[in-house]
Amino acid sequence: MSIEKNFKKQKDYQALIQSVTDCVVAINRHFRIIMANERFKDQFGVHPNTLCFKGWKNREEKCENCLVERSFEDGKPHQNEETVIMKDGRAAHMLIKSTPVRDEKGDISYVLETATDITEKKRLEQELKKLTGNLEQIVGDRLQSLRKSEERYRTMFERSRDAILLTDAEGNILEINQAGVQIFGYTNREELRAKKTAIELFQDREALRRFRREIFREGFVTEFEAKLTGKGDRVFDAAITCNVMILEVMGKVTGYVMIIRDVTQRNQYQKKIEQQNKQLAILNAISMTVNSSLDLRELLKSILDKMLEILESDSIRVYLLEKEKRTLDLVAHKGLSDAFIGIRHIQSRRVGDGMLGRAVERAEPRVVNNLQRSGDKYVDVLVREGLKSTAYIPLLSRGEPIGVMAVSSITPFRYSSDYVAFLSAVGSQIGIAVHNAHLYENLKKAYKDLKDTQDQLIRTEKLASLGKLAATIAHEINNPLAAVLNYIRLMIKLVAREHFTAGKLNDISRYLATMESETARCGEIVKNLLAFSRQSRMTMANHNVGEIIDKTVALISHELELKQIRVVKNLQDNLPPVFCDFRQIQQVMLNLLSNSSEAMTKGGTLTISANGREDEKFLEICVSDTGCGIPENLLDNIFEPFFTTKEEGKGVGLGLSVVYGIIARHNGSIEVKSEPGKGTSFRVLLPFRQEDLENLDA
């Protein structure tokens, strides 16, 4: 804190300085005025932040025998007499004193200079030498001036709203104003002076020791807070500002001036604000916890930890309502013994049973500030655990009770209405947490059911695709099998006729080679078909999309040939691998290629392209045909389950719905463009990397 700000805090000290008749000014190390009393401003017209030697003494540089500089250097008071020019142009002879003022660390904060106008004194001294006969008149005038000054101080003394005490050097109370009498609870000054010394006003001896140490070291204290005692049992919080009175001639401490302000109410307000801030901090922390997790037990544990960390309670139990059985089951607790928690009626309680059960039954808080007088049937168990008081707070969700929270203390503690309201707010937060957790569990179950349904749809569509492939694959396999069968029959005839000449052996070798290649061809077709039809869980790994496309085209190549459909593949060289499920992406490609094939009844061109760079997020696959196209008014519905434009018996409308679901599970996207009579184009985007699959649940 800056010197200037520290100085400004000393309001009562400033009040004393403003009231003196001398000119008083405070000067920092940089010779700038940081405070001046009204008399100084009236006499010299100087304001704070002005250089002292420039604004006060009309110099361009500091004084040669600068008292401020000397006090900062040796830490001692200094004084000097000099003539200065007042604001009105009058030359005045001043006695100037510099006194260093130290901070709490013992460092000099500023130098306090007092300027006493001794012009009159000097003049009187001179005239006394000449006019000794006028001495009585001069003394009389001076006494009159002193009486007026005393009247001014007495008015300030009596009108102060704070207690002002004057004591002697030993702390005996010499004088106190009326405000002080009232603050300490006495009826008159004599009663207080007869019973108390300033030392006896302090309730805490340690506070008194610190107060005396500071006043002896600094010569003053400002806003020192301590508990003081008054009449009878009255104890109040006080802010004390105290200054030492010194006999100027001998430098002896003659007493103390104490200004005492009752700050009990202020401290109570401050304490209440601090408590409210703590409660708001708890509610904020609980709210953040509620929003950070959906695991109910983890949530309740975190909430209980945060509550006991700040609250004045010692233990908490949380019960949730089982509506069908109408029982309250303990789901979380903190600060209680295992033996207590193991008791059957602590573990579970019927609604309406005991104070805890009635809190839920009536959906309103119940407070027991003294358990031994509660009349609760379970009081003995609670008392054995050492509990003194308990607040039962219903947990509400959308206005309906879903449980109860029991907050207990092992020390005498009264649950105020404000405190119960705060606990009810916490109970509402817990109710929200429970509601959210139940919603989350229901959502998880619904998602699992949806995922199971989606898997079933994929399996159903796969079976449908297998049915479509059966006829074309049968033709594909029949041709090589017929060739193999013919060669087998020919060799049987050769064996029966024993026509194994040297020339025939070459033919037999050629027959066997043909049989081998045709059989291998059948095996490859069957292998691909089995691999496609195999049911398995979603297995994610890096795969080459080009390989998936090639294997899918091979499955329906015979069908495409029969329909005179030309296949054009534009696959980028060295395609980066895609993190996906091989079989499901093959299912996507098969459905798209089959749809394109069915759309080109009179032949056409099927174009398949794949492009993408590894530094991009998505790989693009396009499947385009030159078929009949899709009407514009149907484009928004083609991915809906059971929507189809095919004739009855040729499709159930699940193919594109399954495609959409698989792409969505891969966190990709699919879009379609079509023009009736010209063809259709499907564009699929698949993420390259695993970290891009944020929503994937394998």
- If you average the pLDDT, what whole number results? 77
Oligomer: single chain
CATH topology value of the largest domain? Beta-Lactamase
Q: How many domain regions? A: 4
- CATH homologous superfamily annotation of the largest domain: GAF domain
**Number of helical elements:** 22
What is the overall silhouette?
elongated
- Strand segment count: 23
Helix content: 40-55%
What is the CATH architecture annotation of the largest domain? Answer: 2-Layer Sandwich
Strand order of the largest sheet: 13-12-11-16-15-14
Provide the β-strand percentage band. 15-25%
Structural class: alpha+beta
**Poorly predicted tracts of residues:** 648-652, 692-698
Quick one: CATH class of the largest domain?
Answer: Alpha Beta
End-to-end span in angstroms? 61 Å
Give Rg in angstroms: 50 Å
Sheet of most strands: 6 strands, antiparallel
